[in-house]
Amino acid sequence: MERAVLRVDLPLRRRASGKVREVFETDGKILLVATDRLSAFDVILSQGIPGRGKILTQLSEFWFRRLEKVCPNHLVTTDVEKMPEAVRRSAEVLRGRTMLVRALDIVPVECVVRGYLAGSGWKEYRESGSVCGVQLPAGLVESAKLPAPIFTPTTKAHAGHDLPLTYAQVEDQVGAHTASSLRDLSLAIYRAGAAHAQKHGILLADTKFEFGLADGRLVLADEALTPDSSRYWDANTYAPGRPQDSFDKQIVRDWLEQSGWNKSPPPPDLPAAVIEKAGRRYREIADRLMGAPTPA
User: 3-class secondary structure for the chain?
Assistant: First the structure.
């Protein structure tokens, strides 16, 4: 098994160090480096999943290219050889996990779209019959397909959990015109992504997008439709009325839940078998989404 890349240091100004990505500035642009770090319950684990950062970068590039007619995006290149010299000198580590992107004025709203009732949306629906102020039909079950995808934005928290926002609150925060554009673009991207995934035997249950402004125009930023920002289910095993197996780090979360860990640092070490199984899950969703459509 290849070694996990948990930290990247470059002779560039570091703008941020997130749960997964290291963010640098270079020549007026932004360098996003996806490490193999893994977080669970808001704690970064001491081990990563080898190659995970490359899978996330590969999928983001795939979706950015595929969806650029639906919405422009911030990607400049993933080719390390076309990046500044400071990047090229570390090409062995950075190749396959690095995106050079345009600098944007990020809109402080997480744009969540749900096509199915799961996670926090299912919890909120059981309590109120609605999600982020969107009233839903009575009698829906867990994992049910919604009559139509819904826009359920949240705050963009720098620490802790994002909090649900109603559409009216988004309007108050960014203005009516920007709010409607965020909603319409998010729904359009979701529908395009869900249609492609469906052809490959995958259901896109929900996803979240980040947008920025470039010359007053909304641009898709950060990552796009990866297993870290999206909930993917296998169409062949989908059955409403219960939780579904997701193509993400749920395997890791499940093991941690059963380990007796109190969800405060330091986290326990993951067994090698759990790391390997999670890695296979990430590779499978990438291969299926970018491969040939599933025969009807």
Answer: CCCCCCCCCCCCEEEEECCCEEEEEECCEEEEEECCCCEECCEECCCCCCCHHHHHHHHHHHHHHHHCCCCCECEEECCHHHCCHHHHCCHHHHCCCEEEEECCEECCEEEEEEEECCHHHHHHHHHHCEECCEECCCCCCCCCEEEEEEECCEECCCCCCCCECCHHHHHHHHCHHHHHHHHHHHHHHHHHHHHHHHHCCEEEEEEEEEEEEECCEEEEECCCCCCCCEEEEECCCCCCCCCCCECCCHHHHHHHHHHCCCCCCCCCCCCHHHHHHHHHHHHHHHHHHHCCCCCC
